[in-house]
Each structure stands twice: as structure tokens, then as C-alpha cells.
User: Which sequence fits this backbone?
């Protein structure tokens, strides 16, 4: 029953994210696009559509994409766009963090605080990052 509710909740949240497609002001369009890809893979795994190995394989590709996005953002304090660049870098780091933690959870490995990441919570964290929700403030 819990799994069915979790899958239904994930599906509804994914639909709402797809419907609005509004990029938060503190996030670049590239980060948003890559984050949506990661969220789709996470939702597909959580709903039982793909196994852990396939999810990890797909997330490895998405991870490379977010690293490329992160490398393209230069939060240089002397830049006239410094505030935006800093926020863009921070949101890209949140997406990268979510992908990395989800893969750790798939493998059953511990994160930096010594716990195996909860897949649903990691997915929800990414969702809140992509929607600009308060869950990520202070990251």
C-alpha cells in the first residue's frame, strides 16, 4: 500500500512539474532541463519501471550533463552577473547532489554523513529544487 501511494504521489508531482515547466529565477534553463531528466529517471525507478542498474546507468549520463553545466557557470565576484551566477551555481550543485545521493541509495552505500540515502526523500529534494520550493533554502 505504501509503495502504491508513493508511486501515485511521485506521478502526480511529476505531472505537475511537467505541466508548469517554469524555471525558478535562481536556476539556469540548462540546470532545469538536466534536473528534469534526472527526476524522470528517479520517478521511473521508484514506480518500478526500471531496475536499479538501469536507473544508475541513466543517471550516470545525466550526472555528466550536470557537471558540464556546473563547469560552464563562473561565479566570479567581479562579473556584473555575479549574483545570478552564484545562484545558478548553487542550484546546479543541488541537482548534482540529488543525483549523486540517489545513486548512492541505489547501491546501498553511505553518504557523507554515514547514512544510506532514502530514495524517495532524495527524489523529493530534487523536485523541490526544480520548483523553487523552500525545502532547499540554506543549502
Assistant:
Amino acid at each position: 500500500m505504501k509503495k502504491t501511494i508513493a508511486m501515485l504521489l511521485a506521478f502526480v508531482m511529476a505531472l505537475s512539474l511537467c505541466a508548469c515547466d517554469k524555471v525558478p529565477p535562481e536556476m539556469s534553463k540548462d540546470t532545469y532541463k538536466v534536473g528534469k531528466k534526472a527526476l524522470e529517471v528517479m520517478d521511473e525507478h521508484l514506480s518500478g519501471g526500471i531496475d536499479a542498474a538501469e536507473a544508475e546507468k541513466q543517471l550516470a549520463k545525466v550526472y555528466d550533463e550536470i557537471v558540464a553545466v556546473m563547469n560552464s557557470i563562473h561565479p566570479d565576484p567581479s562579473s556584473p552577473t555575479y549574483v545570478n551566477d552564484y545562484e545558478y551555481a548553487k542550484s546546479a550543485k543541488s541537482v548534482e547532489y540529488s543525483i549523486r545521493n540517489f545513486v548512492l541509495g541505489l547501491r546501498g552505500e553511505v553518504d557523507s554523513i554515514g547514512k544510506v540515502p532514502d530514495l524517495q526523500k532524495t527524489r523529493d529534494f530534487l523536485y523541490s529544487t526544480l520548483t523553487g520550493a523552500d525545502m532547499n533554502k540554506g543549502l
